[in-house]
Amino acid sequence: MRMAAGINTGTVIQKGIREAMAGAVELILPYRCALCGSVSDTEDRFSGYDSLYKDLYGKEPALHICGRCLSDLNILAQEKRWSLCLTNPVANDVCPGLALYMPFPYKGIVEKAVPEIKFGKEMELARFFGCLLGSCLQREGIRADVIVPVPLSEERMAERGFNQASEIAYPVAEINGIPFADDLLIRLRDTGRQSEIRDNNERVRNVTGAFGVSGLWDLTGMTVAVVDDVVTTGATLHEAAAALYKAGAYKVLCIAFAGNRYIKNAEPF
Question: Global pTM?
Answer without folding.
Answer: 0.81
